[in-house]
Amino acid sequence: MNADFSHLALFAAALIVTGGMSGFLAGLLGVGGGIIVVPILYLLFPMLDVAEEIRMHLAVGTSLATIIPNAITSARSHLKLNSLDAGLFRKLATPLLFGVIAGSIFGGKSSGRILMFTFAVIALLVAFYMFFRRDTWIIRKDLTTSGAWRIPISLFVGWFSVLMGIGGGTLLVPILSLFNLDMRRAIGTGAAAGIIIGVPGLLGFIATGWSNPLLPPFSLGYCSLIGFALIVPSSMMTVKYGVRIAHSIGPAPLRKIFGCFLLATSTKMFFSAFGI
Q: Measured between alpha carbons, how far is 158 from 161 in angstroms, rounded to an integer?
């Protein structure tokens, strides 16, 4: 590792702050924090001389690892506040898992540019939805009884969430709101989905990156143990504050906050995907 001490200190400090922000967002928006972790890791990994060919893979895999404790903490907090639809979550879980497994295999073997472009496009679509959504945009009144919708939705959310290295909330929250689920309950259910996305998704990225000769020291496949160790402690400290704030403000401001973060990160990843 050729990075000097000042670069390592800056890297560590940036990831500790990133962890705090990601934990707060996990509680506030049910997104698992990956929407911030992935682009920041991608920007910071050059400090560790991580090769461009695997930089996005390592960012996604490490983000999936950080999602797991955040999702567990956030889901438990939302469950205590009765803002997690446990019945709906159980019905989404199995197809969601299949989508995650398929997506992790595809993502581990895809190019970094494909992962960046996927991240940018999906994040941009969700950002515009969050900005312009109207309460009258309802597909059906209840997804719990709509089996024909649940399976393709769960497969879609699992596949693309693991490719982006994000928790289920980024995609699942806006979809659930289209099915007339209260915004806070959508956030709580999306947080729980992060557990199903994080565990098998991480295992898939570890397996596909296991023997890659470009991996930096202290990596477990496409998961940076250094990144994980720096991000998780501070994220665990802030996730409960995000949950509390989510229950103190209305759903419309939540959607706008969500949209702003998605728009910013999408723009950055588009630039990176096209080498700008």
A: 5
| 3-state class percentages of the chain: helix first, strand second, coil last, to nearest 5 | 80, 0, 20
CA 36 to CA 187: how far, in whole Å?
A: 17
Q: Is 222 helix (H, G, I), strand (E, B) or coil?
A: coil
Decide: 44 and 14 in contact? Cβ < 8 Å.
yes
pLDDT tens for 20-49 read 887 787 677 656 567 778 888 988 888 888
pTM: 0.83
- CA 219 vs CA 8, 191, 240: distances in Å: 16, 26, 29
Amino acid occupying residue 198:
G
Delimit the domains of the chain by residue range.
5-273
Strand, helix or coil for residue 80? helix
Q: What is the pLDDT of residues 67-119, one digit of tens each?
A: 888 788 878 877 887 878 888 888 888 999 999 999 888 887 888 888 888 88
